[in-house]
Amino acid sequence: MTESSENTLKVAHQAFANLQHGLSTGDWNPMLDLLTEDFTFWFPVGPYHGLNEGKAKAQDFFQYVSEVFEQSIKLTSLDRVTHNETTVVFEFRDEGRMWQEPYKNRIAVSFDVRGDKICGYREYFGSDGKSN
């Protein structure tokens, strides 16, 4: 593994830990601190569907996530981590309560790394939201 690839993996693992922290506590500051100012993210549904740009928009998005999952959401398994020189993808399962209803899902999140920051994020999910 190259030094660049090792750094990418290290930064992305920190971002993934910060994502889990935000999901379970509602404290998104560690995640926001890791983002570049020109951060972009893609989300598949809802008010943030499609491409979103900027750290301020990311802050709004993460706050929205905390509102949707009022009682927090927990990672139940990390199934796979795949990476190259600039991008790391985490495939995992999670569960909790979404809008007061039981929630389970399979998720893939992709982090693009530039230096020691996250410059891009994409999220995909594919189950029916009730099974995993």
In short:
With 132 residues, the protein is an alpha+beta fold. The chain has helices spanning 3-25, 29-33, 55-68, and strands at 35-43, 50-53, 73-83, 87-98, 101-114, 117-125.
Q: In terms of topology, how is this protein built?
A:
Elements: H1 3-25, H2 29-33, E1 35-43, E2 50-53, H3 55-68, E3 73-83, E4 87-98, E5 101-114, E6 117-125
Parallel strand pairs: 1-6
Antiparallel strand pairs: 1-2, 3-4, 4-5, 5-6
Which labels suit this protein?
132 residues; alpha+beta; Nuclear Transport Factor 2, Chain: A; 32% helix; globular
Description:
Helices cover 32% and strands 45% of the residues. The chain is an alpha+beta fold. The protein has a single domain, classed as Nuclear Transport Factor 2, Chain: A. Strands 2-1-6-5-4-3 form a 6-stranded mixed sheet. The longest helix has 23 residues, at 3-25. The radius of gyration is 14 Å and the shape is globular.
